[in-house]
Amino acid sequence: MSFVLTTCAVGAEAVLRRWMPEHRGWRAAFSRPGLITWKVEGAVDAGLPRPHPLFRTWGVSLGFCTAAPELGKALDQLEAPVLQVMAGEAGPKGHVPETVLERWEADVRRVEEEIRTCWGARVRGGDPAIGEAVLDVVVRPGEPWMVGWHRHTRERGPLPGGAWELAPPADAPSRAWAKLEEMIRWSGLTPGKGESALEIGCAPGGATMALLDRGLRVCSVDPLPIVLPERLRQAPFLQHRCLIEKLPRDQFPAAVDWIVVDMGLSAPMAVHHLARIVPRYRDRLQGLFVTLKLNEWTLVERLPELLDRIAAMGFDSVEAACLPAFRQELGVVARRR
Length: 337
Ligand SMILES: C[S@@+](CC[C@H](N)C(=O)[O-])C[C@H]1O[C@@H](n2cnc3c(N)ncnc32)[C@H](O)[C@@H]1O
Hints:
Elements lengths: L1 E7 L4 H12 L2 E6 L2 E6 L14 E11 L6 H6 L4 E6 L10 H22 L13 E7 L5 E7 L24 H12 L8 E5 L5 H8 L3 E5 L15 E4 L17 E4 L5 H11 L9 E7 L9 H9 L5 E5 L7 E7 L2
Parallel strand pairs: 5-6, 8-9, 8-11, 9-10, 11-12
Antiparallel strand pairs: 1-3, 1-4, 2-3, 4-7, 6-7, 12-14, 13-14
The structure holds S-adenosylmethionine (SAM).
């Protein structure tokens, strides 16, 4: 019998508690908003693939801890792991006051300092390399820390919580900049200079900015306006101010390398639109970056069917994950070989 420590967006716990026992045989053991531990038959591989797209982080659970000296037993099992202390989720992303987030982050810094002072070189800093052990400590103010460990894989970013080091431009108008950049880093795909993108649902323009800053030519479709900053006024950008279903055939770009979709519509509607658009672009298209909004968390139960529909549009792999910048939604990356 083993235990697995997972984190997820606040609100996703109930669907996971239903899905995991039925499909993986994992039984929920301990639960907090945004955190679930699971009882699992047999041993668990610390480098296991993301067990469900809704998990933000996952790894072998090492139980509770209330003070740094108690980590001795955990550290005896691991060879100088990279220490990653992270705040639990204080509430649904976007709905937690800044002051609360700051208090939780202050707690994280205090706990990290306490552990490093106590254990010195037994825990390392910096980014983990692929395959290296990471000691995860999840901190929720006023509660014991939850401790676990995982082996770093390409499936998550190298920072605590599976995040990537992102530097959104000061003039980025929305968090969609971070969502697209996370999907790009997660996938290892490299949309870049000389390539083109069709973007559906572009306002207020965060993802457009990410694409233009990467040197792509961008054709965007959205009835709402976007205003690019002065520095991008000469960038190769064209917007059609209408709904995608109203765009006349001859206004679609002839060929594109990438399609980016973030329409704020429920996941099945977004896939419905994709099914009408993607077949036009079979020749040159390399991949899709899609935000699938889960109006209800239970919509995730339709995810296998929706991903199959996307794959059937001509992609060799389609993956979904609730990456750190995502709220009640999933990032989906589809690629051709
Ligand atoms: C979440 S926002 C997009 C955020 C944007 N990607 C960014 O980077 O800032 C959703 C957008 O989709 C647009 N939208 C909704 N339905 C659409 C449709 N049928 N065709 C085109 N755009 C649509 C909305 O007008 C809205 O601006």
